[in-house]
Amino acid sequence: MDFEIREDRKPQGAKKLAKERTAYFQLMQQGVSGREACRILGINRRTGQRWSNGRNPSGKSGAAPPITTVVPPSAPSRYLRQEERIHIADRLREKATVRVIAAELGRSPSTISREIRRNRTDGTRGQWHYRPHAAQARADARRPRPKPRKISQNPELRDAVQVMLDEKWSPEQICQALRQKFPDRPEMHVVHETVYQALYIQGRGQLRRELAGALRSGRARRRPQRQANCRQPRFTTPMVMISERPAEIEDRALPGHWEGDLIIGKDGKSAIGTLVERATRYVMLLHLPGDHGAEAVLTALTSTVQTLPVQLKRSLTWDQGSEMARHGEFTLATDIPVYFCDPASPWQRGSNENTNGLLRQYFPKGTDLSVHSPEHLVAVADQLNRRPRKTLGWETPAERLHKLLAA
Description:
This protein has 18 helices and seven strands. It folds into three domains: 15-142, no CATH class; 150-214, no CATH class; 242-406, Nucleotidyltransferase, domain 5, CATH 3.30.420.10. The chain is an alpha/beta fold.
């Protein structure tokens, strides 16, 4: 594109400089200096500086809408382009909100907010300015991959990490020790993932030792930390989540819908299974004398529910504990569907959680639960089932269950 010096140098006003402003940025993209671009176009050097710093042609904030509207491409790039950064700077001068700017560019508001926060120029007294060309330069400097690793660039840091690895310290222990030993030297601070990455590329010479002896796991390859949606399923038989549970279970109108869980004894070595009927709060306890793994729970759970009448065998809701790994076999044996709660959501089995709290009166925490006989568990459950409950209008669970079965 050819440009000629404008002979008429009289003030043109903001709108009449629109073509010059567009040509100014085209020259800048071709590698022409700002001073030379101003000379070619016949504009004042200060005008070019204002444009470079993201001001609108008049140099005043909020004077007019931007001269050009950035039209997002049909397939927008992952990274912001320079013309988009210029548009951001112009609109910030005009006090436009982040959401408005994002809509104009076809970007997410978080993208624009993050761009401003990361690439703005901080001034005195807490003030800051967003300068598009400086922001573009910062983004370009951060983009190259692979980035140089902190441990490889700092021999002192590398030696300090090596010494602690020789003492069989874990990467997390190493990171904490470095922060305590060098509190005022951020160049000596790393996160544990940095140490792991340095170890697993140790063949390139960053840390000089045998990998298998450096970590307690002894793995020679890094195990990927998968995102939640990429992890392997917890059970072989797919779980049916509580969100798919029929609506009739929610209103507690029909008996036969149960909630289940384990209460754990001392050091996690013993347990008792608990079953609570949702409509009546009727309690049944599972005897688990040996262990509380998937096979033991399957056996105890199956034998217990098979003693129930047909109208009390409708559904079972459990958390995602490993003891229910064989829930598919349980459903085949009893024809009772199993629904699973969301992770870390005990309130989705509220009746069961409340009953477990009552059971701690009989089976305190920190005690060995394997010493309790099946007869004792039956006696405890019977006592709870004969205890009046406020939520049942002061009826007992046994009385309410008898009424529902009779009806």
